[in-house]
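2024-03-11 09:14:02 DEBUG pipeline.ingest accepted 1 chain
2024-03-11 09:14:02 DEBUG pipeline.ingest length=143
2024-03-11 09:14:03 DEBUG pipeline.predict start
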Amino acid sequence: MTEENRAKKRRTAGRKPKSDPAIYRYGIKLNAEERGHFELLFQKSGLSHRSRFIKAAVFGTPIKVVSIDKATMDYYIRLTNFYQQFQAIGNNYNQTVKAVKSNFSEKRAMALLYKLQKATFELVVLSKEIIALTREYEEKHLK
């Protein structure tokens, strides 16, 4: 390999240079109260770098404030768990009907299926109440 080829190869390796690199640096000093306020705003912004937060604040870019409501998260988690249980009940329902039909006489199977149907209606009413409560909660607290 000639010297010229080696030089060309070296130029192509590594990171591509930026067309307009950010090389200018500014420094500010804050007292304890200002620092606390700055850190609070930075945390609320949801940005991962302080420099990006400062740039956004200086140049007037809208800063997103993300707030996490623990009560809403807890409600969402419980609702998700309930939905999973509801799906499991649906799967078990089909298996139960098949088992009752194959293992009991027709009269006994009808009696058991009637009880199962009654419990299913109660579950449907309960799920409708939960949906109504969820919609009410969303309207009051999530807007």
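2024-03-11 09:14:41 DEBUG pipeline.report The mean pLDDT is 81.
2024-03-11 09:14:41 DEBUG pipeline.predict end
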